[in-house]
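Let's inspect one such protein example.
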Amino acid sequence: EVQFVESGGGLVQAGGSLRLSCEASGFTVDVYSIGWFRQAPGKDRKGVGCISSSDGSTVYTDSVKGRFTISSNNGKKTAYLQMDSLKPEDTAIYYCGVRLDPSLAKRRLQECVWDYWGQGTQVTVSS
């Protein structure tokens, strides 16, 4: 069973920073992508970004490019989401997810898709 330990959410003022952590477990595949999607009240889920365990390539949604950075520690199946210059519109529940994808060993990450995800952590940005 794939499981997640998510941490780092909270309340921050606009312009501030937060760092989310996500440790995944319960799978033996070494090639995967890991990242986050978010869901704001009354809105659909939207991908934030993800990173490939194979070559460290990343994908971000346009609204967070230049402000958010994803990094990872592949040996621990852990990823981090550094969020800077936060805006009130970033307020949402952030879910960590993984896609087990051996094809990433032969191709560059191009999109974020998730097979499994955690319970989520709340991020609130006040104006």
